[in-house]
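Data availability (excerpt). The following record was deposited with the supplementary files.
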Amino acid sequence: MAIKQLTVFVPNRQGTLVSITNTLAAHNINIRALSIAETEEFGILRLIVNDEATAERTLAEADYLIKVVDVVGVKIGDEPGKLTAALDVLDKAGINMEYLYAFMARTEKHAYVVLRVEDNAVAENALVNAGFHLVTEADVNKL
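Predicted structure:
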């Protein structure tokens, strides 16, 4: 039930990010979640989009280095302590989390979080067994 994340390696220079977002917009790609981390020379842009295949092809044609990674999306209550509860489930299951970030959209009562873990299937099972609902590609497309 993993969702697809685009990881884009980008030069850390003025105008690069706007070029990427402009390219996606020109191809009717809607960004649902994003994270960017940078070093002095390059950045790592992580994206969840409404049309992963088109976004991947479009950015590759623009000469960006892209990797598609399966990640776990989890729906959590939008109140204090709910993120901690989800993270605690993973911790108790012995699952290491590499990074996380949130979706740009939220519902009235929930927030969506993207988790990168060592083993998606184990993390998904642990979260579902603890009562959490996973975010699917269909959910991403509805946002």
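Summary of structural features: The domain at 3-69 is CATH 3.30.2130.10 (VC0802-like).
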